[in-house]
Design goal:
- It is built from six helices and 13 strands.
- It is α/β, with parallel strands linked by helices and 250 residues long.
- It is globular and about 45 Å long.
- Helix 1 runs parallel beside helix 2 (48-58).
- It comes from Rhizobium laguerreae.
- Belongs to the cyclic nucleotide phosphodiesterase class-III family.
- Pfam families: Metallophos.
């Protein structure tokens, strides 16, 4: 079972990240994953045409596509312009999703907070606990912001709050997810929430610099990237796939 994940397109009128998206989608059309999950921040500044262009790219894939909003998205525009691409469990309110694909369950939790840049998983834990209660297959949990400290202060200030409450919820279910898979950070990062792996997907816009512990703001040498997750025999292996940026750099 192969699940691709892209995140943080941040489409804007200069079209640069949309060109990178097209390269990623072209690769995925040939690779043919079983599903694609997009973990938020599709468009900058509520650019309606940007949502339409993203939808057009995603509709060219021959696999189910599932979408979460990020803290930079306009939820109303995203819901209306991508209605033909993704489906959510509610017609209004949080844009959670739950789907089963070939013996694997995918959960998406919308942790966005209206009018704020940070996320908060706490209001959604009752839904998540109920959704996980009857799961008998391996599962993956997708969110926009990661529910743990990344170590980059500017990102941690707008991360997902109440990660400890999420851990308590996941510890209480019979079959917790294989991993928590997020976006927001604009670079791959790997950690744990308790015993559960947490991974962040690279971005299709320029990656963020690695601003750790006061180190210098060095030029970014990372390429835009996304993830491919392979679930087999109840285990998970994730692969980073780099994409040429719009200027041709790797």
């Amino acid at each position: 079972m192969l699940v691709a994940q892209i995140s943080d397109i941040h489409a804007r009128p200069d079209l640069s990240s949309l060109q990178t998206l097209e390269r990623a989608i072209g690769w995925l059309r040939t690779f043919r994953p079983d599903a694609l999950v997009v973990t938020g921040d599709l468009v900058d500044d509520g650019w309606r045409r940007g949502y339409r262009l993203v939808a057009e790219s995603l509709r060219s894939l021959d696999c189910p596509v599932h979408l979460l909003p990020g803290n930079g998205d306009d939820l109303q525009l995203m819901r209306s312009e991508l209605a033909a691409v993704g489906t959510w469990i509610n017609a209004t309110g949080p844009m959670h999703f739950r789907t089963a694909v070939d013996g694997l369950t995918l959960f998406g939790v919308d942790v966005t907070v209206a009018g704020q840049s940070y996320g908060d998983v706490l209001p959604h834990l009752p839904w998540l606990m109920n959704a996980l209660a009857d799961v008998t297959t391996p599962s993956l949990l997708f969110m926009h912001q990661p529910p743990l400290r990344i170590g980059i202060e500017v990102l941690d200030r707008v991360g997902c709050r109440n990660g400890s409450a999420l851990l308590s919820t996941l510890d209480a279910v019979n079959r917790p997810p294989l991993a928590i898979l997020c976006g927001h950070v604009h670079r791959p990062a790997f950690g744990r929430l308790g015993s559960i792996p947490v991974q962040t997907c690279g971005s299709l816009c320029p990656p963020n610099p690695l601003l750790l512990e006061g180190r210098a703001d060095l030029p970014v040498i990372d390429a835009p990237s996304f993830l491919v997750h392979e679930v087999s025999d109840g285990g998970l292996v994730s692969h980073v796939v780099s994409v040429l940026a719009s200027d041709g750099s790797a």
